[in-house]
Amino acid sequence: MPIELAIFDIAGTLIEDHNEVADAFLDALRDNHIDVSDDEIKEWKGSAKRQVIAHFVERQFGKCRNLPLIDRTYSEFRYRLEERYGKGGIVKIKGAEETLDFLRARQIKLATTTGFYREVRDRIVKELKWESRFDVNVCSDDVASGRPAPDMIHLAMKQLNISDPQNVLTVGDTPLDLQSGTTAKCGIVVGVLTGMHTPERLRREPHTHIINSVADIRTVVISM
What we know:
The chain is an alpha/beta fold. The termini are close together. It is 45% helix and 12% strand. It has helices at 20-31, 38-43, 49-61, 67-85, 96-105, 118-127, 151-159, 175-183, 199-203, 217-223; strands spanning 5-8, 109-114, 136-139, 168-172, 188-192, 209-211. The chain has a six-stranded parallel β-sheet. The chain is built from ten helices and six strands. The radius of gyration is 17 Å and the shape is globular. The protein has two domains: 5-17 and 91-223, 3-Layer(aba) Sandwich (Rossmann fold), CATH 3.40.50.1000; 20-85.
């Protein structure tokens, strides 16, 4: 099948994941007396960030009259996350840029999707000087539902006039990335092992490929 569009997650897929998001979640939730475990947060990696906080608040206190607590916890999460990413520690996954160059040379359009809100996404793209690397950058702010819903993938396709999801390759490091790509009916759904999840955990989700890192995408494409 011809690949028209390659869509990449950001943290853990294109840049190294040093637990910035998970630690910010845990600190903000626990400081607001919301019960959560490290393993639970790991399962939510890749999702819309406010959605994660709302889930744990509503699980503990129910769905009524919790908006102030959700707002306060989300605000604290944002502060902690931006503090972590503001320290200049954003590191590209080895081979990421070479893979993007390879795909571009084959006339494949490039996009990112991310559970980050817009400010963090833009900070990462700017610091890495990737403003012109991608044709489209989609974040959870841009859609009604974050992962595992396929909304971000569908929006990237729409903006780039790609009609057939079978001609789309998605790449991510979390179970939610794989669920989203599968739900969108993408032709190639790739999991990479540069995030926080084990090969065994990723293989439990529908996928077409599990590879070591984004650097190995070239092998996947050539084999198609």
